[in-house]
Design goal:
The chain is an alpha/beta fold. 43% of the residues lie in helices and 19% in strands. Bound molecules: iron/sulfur cluster.
Length: 282
């Protein structure tokens, strides 16, 4: 049985950088709190928890004095609220996300109504909607945008994307939104704000899936980008999305000779190494 890794997989630059800054903050200040999970990976969070790093989901539960903003970033209002409450902020927002935040703000200043193609409840998307200003909305389906506008369709609309969205999904969204709104708007602009780290992992996963007869995707079950890797691979070959090596069932391997591994952008290196070692040992 052969085991092969995708040529690009695992922790992206932004999450790796955020985890490094978080470790530094914990070493300097002792206990620190992150507003929302620093990454959507249970094992990584457990490891950081052992360093005294606590995840707090609601701003009202923060004890302070040091609060870490995750790689996904926050809205300007949220940052202002943290400052007003006197917290010391360690901002680990990924530079790519920060670029999209500033673009959302600039588009809004130029008079566009901003649409964020992404999961409305995701931390990054909530932040981007905040940067997009009054009237900014988030949606995964074009019809939801049209429904939100009703008859009050803005004259100028700019669409940006959550950084981890897939190209094919954004293309479909763009086509459907154009078909629904183009007759009523003066300008409909699409800006491809997807991250190259996502593209590289998606392409590498797709290429590997075509060359193996079984794929493992390792990463948080609640990690959006990991789930999208699993969706991509599952369309090509039998695929199992696991978060922990303990979830592997030996029966899955029956009759398979070539096994591929890929991992989400928030999956720690150790998880990948442990999975590879486990599969090789079978
Ligand atoms: S996927 Fe891209 S944008 Fe998101 S944290 Fe990683 S490097 Fe930054």
């Amino acid at each position: 049985m052969q085991v092969e890794r995708a040529r690009e997989l695992g922790l992206c630059y932004g999450v790796r950088r955020a985890v490094g800054l978080l470790r530094e903050a914990a070493a300097t200040h002792g206990k620190v709190e992150t507003l929302g999970p620093i990454a959507h990976n249970r094992l990584l969070l457990a490891e950081l928890g052992a360093l005294g790093i606590r995840t707090v989901d609601d701003v009202s539960d923060l004890a302070g004095p040091v609060v870490v903003v995750s790689a996904h970033g926050v809205s300007p209002d949220m940052k202002q609220s943290l400052q007003t409450r006197g917290f010391e902020i360690v901002d680990t927002t990924c530079p790519n996300v920060a670029r999209v935040q500033h673009l959302a703000r600039d588009l809004s200043v130029q008079g566009f109504s901003v649409v964020v193609f992404g999961e409305a409840e995701h931390t990054e998307v909530r932040g981007l909607v905040g940067w997009g200003g009054k009237g900014a909305v988030a949606a995964l389906r074009a019809e939801d945008v049209a429904h939100t506008y009703g008859t009050a369709i803005p004259r100028r609309i700019a669409v940006i994307a959550q950084t981890t969205q897939r190209a094919e999904d954004m293309a479909l969204f763009a086509a459907e939104l154009s078909s629904l709104l183009l007759g009523d708007v003066e300008e409909l602009r699409f800006v491809n704000t997807r991250c190259t780290a996502t593209d590289l992992r998606q392409r590498a996963a797709r290429d590997l899936a075509h060359n193996v007869d079984l794929m493992f995707v390792i990463g948080g079950h609640n990690s959006a980008n990991t789930r999208r890797l699993a969706t991509t691979c599952a369309a090509i070959v039998e695929t199992h999305h696991i978060e922990d090596v303990g979830e592997v069932e030996y029966a899955w391997l029956d009759g398979h000779q070539r096994i591929g591994i890929t991992a989400g952008a928030s999956t720690p290196d150790e998880s990948i190494e442990t999975l590879e070692a486990r599969l090789r040992s079978i």
